[in-house]
Amino acid sequence: MGDSPDADVLIAANGTYDNELFGIFLRDAANGRLGSEWSYGKCVGAIVLNTGATVAGDWRFLANKISDNDKFCPGDEEEGTPPLSGIGVAIAGGADNRLVGNVIRDNTRPAGCRLPLAWS
């Protein structure tokens, strides 16, 4: 879901697995619910991202299963993205997001993977 400042959407009972980078990607979108989703086998299970164009907020994550997101995705200097790995849920620049009754576990970096502590 992207570029929807008043999405007013329900996303429910879907699964994402073994794809690259993100399972659930909510960019510059607000006002929605995610329920009974499952996401595993990627770098980031779910992300709410505000790029500054609008607000990424008022999302409710309810009873989702987000686990085993342990792939490594290298950063893209041209896009300004850092390397990512082992992230269950990321909220970057979002506001008023709530996670209730979710199972978020076993999201780990691959053995030997070293990510930078900070990037610019």
Topology:
Layout: E1 2-4, E2 9-12, E3 15-17, E4 22-29, E5 32-35, E6 38-40, E7 44-49, E8 59-62, E9 65-67, E10 72-73, E11 84-85, E12 87-92, E13 98-100, E14 103-105
Parallel strand pairs: 1-4, 2-5, 3-6, 4-7, 5-8, 6-9, 7-12, 8-13, 9-14
Antiparallel strand pairs: 10-11
The number of helical runs is: 0
Can you list the strand order of the major beta sheet?
1-4-7-12
The total count of strands amounts to 14
- Report the C-alpha radius of gyration, rounded: 14 Å
Strand coverage percent: over 45%
Poorly predicted runs are: none
What does it look like?
This protein is mainly beta and 120 residues long. It has one domain. 0% of the residues lie in helices and 45% in strands. It is built from no helices and 14 strands. A 4-stranded parallel β-sheet has the order 1-4-7-12, with no helix packed on it. Strands 2-5-8-13 form a 4-stranded parallel β-sheet, with no helix packed on it. The two termini are 26 Å apart. The model has no long low-confidence stretch (mean pLDDT 89).
